[in-house]
């Protein structure tokens, strides 16, 4: 069974970043993505952020991190609130101490 996002139940792929952390990416490559994904010699999916110094290599494919596309993680818009309901967090003062 393919891994799924626990929030939205869409399929994901787990990668290991250069810092050794896990990163969920969307399973299909996307040219607008910012995570270069490849499979290393041991079969582990790896990911990194391409830069101008280290551009995308031929064996890497760009993917979007799932957090950027997960509908359960998206901030609800003002249009999604019922008529006459105001989001209080938009009007609260921020404390700068």
Question: Short description, anyone?
Answer:
By secondary structure, the protein is mainly beta.
Describe it:
4% of the residues lie in helices and 22% in strands. It contains 1 helix and 5 strands. It has one helix at 66-69; strands at residues 13-17, 22-25, 35-39, 45-48, 61-63. The longest helix is centred in the C-terminal third of the chain and has 4 residues, at 66-69. The chain has a 5-stranded mixed beta sheet with strand order 2-1-4-3-5, with no helix packed on it. It is elongated, with a radius of gyration of 18 Å. With 97 residues, the chain is mainly β.
Overall structural class, as computed from helix and strand content, comes to: mainly beta
**Average predicted local confidence, pLDDT:** 87
Radius of gyration: 18 Å
**What is the number of independent domains?**
1
Task: State the order of secondary-structure elements, H for helix, E for strand.
Answer: EEEEEH
Supply the number of helical segments. 1
Estimated helix fraction: under 10%
Per DSSP, what share of the residues sits in E-state strands of 2 or more residues?
15-25%
Which residue ranges are poorly predicted, with pLDDT under 50 across at least 5 consecutive positions? none
Order of strands, widest sheet: 2-1-4-3-5
End-to-end separation in angstroms reads 49 Å
Main sheet? 5 strands, mixed
Task: Please tally the β strands and state the result.
Answer: 5
Shape by Cα distribution: elongated
């Amino acid at each position: 069974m393919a891994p799924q996002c626990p929030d939205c139940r869409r399929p994901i792929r787990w990668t290991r970043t250069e810092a050794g952390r896990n990163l969920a990416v969307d399973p299909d490559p996307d040219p607008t993505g910012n995570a270069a994904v490849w499979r290393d010699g041991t079969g582990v999916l790896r990911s990194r952020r391409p830069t101008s110094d280290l551009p995308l290599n031929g064996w890497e494919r760009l993917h979007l991190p799932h957090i950027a596309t997960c509908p359960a993680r998206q901030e609800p818009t003002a249009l999604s609130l019922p008529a006459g309901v105001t989001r209080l967090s938009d009007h609260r003062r921020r404390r700068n101490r």
